[in-house]
Amino acid sequence: MRVVIAEDSVLLREGVQRLLADEGIETAAAVENGDELLDAVIEHKPDLCVVDVRMPPTFTDEGLRAAIECRRRFPGLPVLVLSQYVEERYAVELLAGGASGVGYLLKERVADVKEFVDAVRRVADGGTSIDHEVITQLMVRSKKSPVDKLTPREREVLGLMAQGLSNTAIAGTLVVSDGAVEKHVGNIFAKLGLEPSNSEHRRVRAVLAYLDS
User: Fold this and answer.
1) Response regulatory domain: which residues (predicted)?
2) Cα–Cα dist 142/170, whole Å
3) How far apart are CA 141 and CA 136, in angstroms?
4) How far apart are CA 32 and CA 6, in angstroms?
5) Domain 2-136 in CATH: superfamily?
6) Torsional sign, CA 119, 16, 212, 176
7) Cβ atoms within 10 Å of 36's Cβ, excluding its own
């Protein structure tokens, strides 16, 4: 796997690069702003981009904007966004273009090597990895939406789906059977009005509904 890292902090940029190298993951380029990120993606065509939300010159949303532009130019390009704080709007905006191959983690998660590397590999493989703190805050501000129809357990299952967990992993986390999880997932799809589709994966659509609720 080859990645491009976009992070203005030299310490974090080099730290992530070294951490990935220890896991056998090559860094094709490590840059410090959005323009350099786009150039690096064009040049190296990486398997994944690890991007800070806030970068020079204004330190607002340059990284996110660059990531969205990269995905516009290279549809399906996996992007894992790192942020110092929970910024809900950015998480929803990134996912609005399609939840396949996207992740949003707080920077403090990098300290948990296994969790971070798992997220890197999951997103690179086309999965989703959303920080549980982001999910928690989105739930707190949730207003009337189809998600409100879900039972507490179904919301819990959907939250774990949003983190990128498989049914088996969800079953292990909740200490229930795979069959019970499959039943909850089926109920979630039904309550959200997600009929089988050849063009969109219902799991992704359910996560989007959850994050936009």
Assistant:
1) 2-122
2) 22
3) 9
4) 5
5) Response regulator (3.40.50.2300)
6) positive
7) 17
Classify residue 52 by its DSSP letter.
Answer: E
The answer to whether 100 and 204 have CB atoms below 8 angstroms apart is yes
Residue 106 has which token pair?
């707080």
List, run by run, the mean pLDDT of 10-residue segments along the chain (213 residues).
Answer: 94 92 96 93 96 84 86 90 75 65 86 90 89 68 68 89 87 92 90 69 73 62
Q: According to the model, what pLDDT value does residue 199 have?
A: 47
Cα-based distances in Å from 208 to 7, 16, 26, 55, 110: 26, 28, 31, 26, 25
Topology of the domain covering 142-211: Arc Repressor Mutant, subunit A (1.10.10)
- CA–CA distance, 142 with 120 (Å, rounded to integer): 28
